Amino acid sequence: MPKVTPVHLSPKNFEKMRVSYAFQLFSNDVVKALRLYKELLTSQYEATEPTTSQEDQPTDQSDDIATWSNWSVTQY
After folding, report:
1. What is the Cβ-side half-sphere exposure of residue 55, based on CA atoms within 13 angstroms?
2. Which InterPro entries does this one have (predicted)?
């Protein structure tokens, strides 16, 4: 993807404070590239819909807060 580097996905210490990385990560070029990849994948694989949707699953705000407080990019 254009402009996306490992630093954008797994920033270290002071890199986390760089606003320019966030702007680059959510730039129009990256959005266009993601849409293009989605179109290419859906044209190659017809049945690409998820088996369940977020709407089907009950949400609990306390679960969401716990998940986000423990979330780290490096885990993925």
Report:
1. 1
2. TNP-like_GBD
pTM over 0.70: no
Q: What is the dihedral of CA 54, 34, 66, 61, to 10 degrees?
A: -40
Q: How confident is the model at residue 20 (pLDDT cuts 50, 70, 90)?
A: confident
Type of residue numbered 17: M
Q: Read off the pLDDT of residues 22-73 as tens digits, 9 standing for 90 and up.
A: 888 788 888 888 889 888 888 877 766 666 666 656 555 555 555 555 555 5
CA 6 to chain centre: 13
Nearest to 29 by CA among 49, 50, 2, 53: 2
Q: Name residue, tokens 């986000």.
A: 68
